[in-house]
Amino acid sequence: SGSNIQELAPIVIHRPSILRVILLQSQATNNPTEKSNMDLISLSGVVLHYSNRVWKLHEGFNFHDPLSIEEDVGSNLETHIIPGGIEAKFSHALNCWYVFPPPPGIDS
Minimal CA–CA distance to 43: which of 71, 79, 3? Predict the structure, then answer.
């Protein structure tokens, strides 16, 4: 049944260092049609997929609610902008990600 992206389990990203490695590897992949499980990642339950050199929210998943960040955590987040404009913020205190859509004005 071919290698359909739906059959691939996403890589669960536990730390920012792993995210950096995945982003570097995905950009180093020259063949845009080649599917690999590097193309699907999960950041605290938000699954993103990679195609045409940008990351997008995977079908059937939602971004986190910006209001869900507890105030004491908000100032203590490590922010990563993922190609495509998605913002992934990592809380070292809670050891979890908050993933938000690209800011308005970025064409998806």
Answer: 79
Sorted by sequence, the CB contacts under 8 Å of residue 55 that are 6+ apart come out as 26, 41, 48, 49, 82, 83, 84, 86
Q: Strands 86-91, 77-82: parallel, antiparallel or unpaired by DSSP?
A: antiparallel
CA gap 78, 66 in Å, rounded:
15
User: DSSP E strands: which ranges in 2-108?
Assistant: 11-12, 40-43, 46-51, 54-57, 77-82, 86-91, 96-100
DSSP conformation class of 14? -
Query: pLDDT by residue (tens digit) across 5-51?
Result: 456 789 999 999 999 999 988 877 666 556 555 689 999 999 999 98
User: Residue 92 in 3-state DSSP?
Assistant: coil
